[in-house]
Amino acid sequence: MESNKLTIVIVTYKSEEKIFSCLDSIPKNVPIIIIENSNNQDFKKQIKNRHPNIECILTGSNKGYAVANNIGLNNVKTKYALVLNPDTKLDKYAINNFLSSAKNQKDFWLLGPANDQGIDNNDSSNHLIEVNNIKGFAIFFNLEKFNKKYFDENYFLYFEEIDLCKDVKKKGGKIFLDRTIIINHDGAASVSKTKNLELEKSRNWHWMWSTFYFHNKHQGYFYAFLNILPKLLSSIFKTVFYQFMFNNEKKIIYFCRMSGIINSMLGKKSWYRPSLD
Helix 160-170 and helix 196-219: axis angle, to 10°? Predict the structure, then answer.
């Protein structure tokens, strides 16, 4: 395995429950950069104590998925990088298979595992399938194709990998899924569930903000407005409805959806941050 050609980048945020299982599944000779979206010195010490060869960078505050991954990718010195979620575990052949496909398909921009991505793995006619999108839990980058420009940093949460793939396809780049690569993904489990309401508020705000921003960026304001209008009207109605029903939790959640839409429509930055400390 040519591990000197690959670096793994993992963005973490309150991911202590998952990250060490992920790290244990990675071959020891593969360089790893962890970007911790906080100033958590204790977390960095835990990483260094258990894995002295791993580089752990603290961002100082929660900067989101896109910014943190860009920090990691811009610190990579190898030809390829694998962006992983902390709630993943690699099959023992995953790294070898990534590198093998990269060697055989030299003009690729992005590669992803075919498992967990809606692909029929019983069809063995071709182990590489060209696609328009791959999921964000495991993205293998051919860094030479990107010229140091990766994720759109306007996103804080959601749509980052969809936007990345859209930009790649606009530039004529090739994206593949590989049937031979197995990476297990827990899904929505990177952050420990200590404050569920705060997480729900953040998810709803950012899902709406990112939805409008994505469509505005790629299809224009009018299309984005028509796409988001039913969601905006629904969130307004449900905010008022749950106010009268004295259901404060649901009222807050739908208010966050409404706020995310309006802020995005007004061209404001993705500013909302969950209170998880």
Answer: 20
Sign of CA dihedral 102, 172, 143, 26: negative
Q: Which sequence spans correspond to the domains of the chain?
A: 3-185, 196-265
| pLDDT (tens digit per residue) in 24-53 | 999 999 999 999 999 999 999 999 999 998
| Contact (CB, 8 A) for 190 and 87 | yes
Q: Token pair of 182, please?
A: 């197995």
Mean pLDDT, to the nearest integer, of 246-254?
97
CB 66 within 8 A of CB 40: no
- Dump pLDDT digits (tens) for 61-100: 999 999 999 999 999 999 999 999 999 999 999 999 999 9
Task: Tokens for 119, please give them.
Answer: 């692909």
What is the mean predicted confidence (pLDDT) over 137-149? 95
Residue 79 CB burial class (10 angstroms; 0-12, 13-18, ≥19): middle
Query: What are the DSSP calls for 15-74, one per residue?
Result: -HHHHHHHHHTS-TTS-EEEEESS--HHHHHHHHHH-TT-EEEE-SS--HHHHHHHHHHT
Q: Return the structure tokens found at 114.
A: 């075919």
The CATH code of the domain at 3-185 is 3.90.550.10
pLDDT confidence bin for 195, thresholds 50/70/90: low
Burial of 175 (0-12, 13-18, 19+ CB in 10 A): buried
User: Residue 123: its pLDDT value, please?
Assistant: 59
Neighbouring residues of 216: CB distance < 8 A, sequence distance ≥ 6: 223, 224, 264
- Please tell me whether residue 9 adopts helix, strand or coil conformation: strand
Q: What one-character-per-residue DSSP string does 217-232 give?
A: HHH-HHHHHHHHHHHH
